[in-house]
Amino acid sequence: MNIETFLKNKILHAIKKIGLDIQEGEVVLEHPKDETRGDYATNAALQHAKRIGLKPRDLAAKIVEEIDCSGLVKIEIAGPGFLNFFIASNTLQAIVEDIISQDSNYGRGMPKKQKINVEFVSANPTGDLHLGHARCAAIGDSICRLYEFAGYEITREFYVNDAGAQVNKMGASLRARYLNEFGIDASVPEDGYHGLDLVDIAKLVKEIHGDKLVADTEANMKTFIQEGIRLELEKIKKDLADFRVTFDLYSFETDVRKDGKVEKTLQDYREFTYLDNGATFLRTSAFLDDKDRPVVKSDGSYTYLMPDITYHLEKLSRGYDLLVDVLGADHHGYTNRMRSALMMKGYPAEIIDFELVQVVRLMKGDVEVKMSKRGGTTITLRELSEEVGVDATRYFFVARAATSHLDFDYDLALERSSSNPVYYAQYAHARLCKLLETGADIGLDISAKNLRESSEINLLKHLQEFPITIESCAKTREPYKVATYIQKLAGLTHAFYTECRVIDRDNPELSQSRLALCKASQIVMRNALNVLGVTAPEQM
Length: 540
What we know:
This protein is α/β, with parallel strands linked by helices. It has 20 helices and 15 strands. Strands 7-6-5-11-12 form a five-stranded parallel β-sheet, with helices on both faces. It has a four-stranded antiparallel β-sheet with strand order 1-2-4-3. Helix 1 (3-18) packs across helix 3, helix 2 (44-52) crosses helix 3 (56-66) and helix 16 packs across helix 19 (479-499). The two termini are 33 Å apart.
């Protein structure tokens, strides 16, 4: 049972009896800062008094007259018309049995019958994943986990840009590294890829093909491109899997460009196109864009937008109710041009949404670290995960809103102290597990009837808010708010441990209730951490 929903239903029913029809979203509940003023408070009487022609305090009094007080100790009218609710102990205590009975399903939403495609990372297969890709991976995967836990049907998709200038440059760079393996003097093109990861891939190509690719032929260059893409993508998949990120589907730009698909799309858009100086433009400014966008260059080649439109139309043909693209912040101008292109085909603007992820700086103290120890280039996802751990890396990446710049505190991520937020949360979980192990012979009283201390009540209140937190965070795609929930849960758990003697063999009945609260708290902490792809260790 969610207490906020429980209270809102009581308030709505009472107001309806008075003669005013309002919706659940019009009733706002909050926790009073002063605990002596109750467990929850609402300003509903102040908000809606004018609509019924009453003074706020008079409407508040009528609400108190009409409300069903079961599960409540009392209701007080405060100030100009605030209502303060005092929840009965047994109402709060019932949360413990609810959580323990549902276990790993506590917080899970009912099936929504809504199919959502989330595309994220989608890095060019031309090198290792850098910190920007890493943050997109953590946020994109956490959004998917949130969606799934809230009851949505999710497809995780990675779009492989395996066509165009960048992969051609990668192929030329790989060829140079391959020739170097045979002692042949060859330089990576100035605008090519200089990362040392291509040296390792060149060694693999040599193992597979021997010296068959030494000759400078078009067929051999095609092989370098194909092998480079395949081996780079294998490496990307492994690095992501180690980061606890997997995909349901990999789509390839070369497939999008096959069989005249892009040409057909361009033909289907002919009523929205025009020629200017030999280039073809799409009238996106007639919809949401600030100006029209070229889709075919004057030399006849496509801009990146044209195959992208074809790809998004193909995704929608699979029957999704919503497309979500998780992109770097530099794609800000991309959002309305893609929305406009889909609107041209009759889709609503809301059929697609975007998460624009801001940049990451890796900081050691006050110094920004830019260079990899291994390759002399940017820090990679693999390197950071190996040095500070997957848990800390994922947690730090999602603990701030995607729209916020992130300074990743390397030294803090390594700390084993309460200053490190992921350590603080995981330690709370491990502490709860240890208490349950130590008190296993005492048993649990899942009625939790002896929980009355303020630290116990505060923890119970927070535990019951988990399902509504999941529902809200999924709707807004804000996994950082789950991290905020986790930090508060850890703080309340540590406070409960400090203020209450959990294992008291001279008072087994009280210990049984407190151990049941430990079990409920452990379940919620584990479920919340799992939503962020972070482990919940049983000992630390």
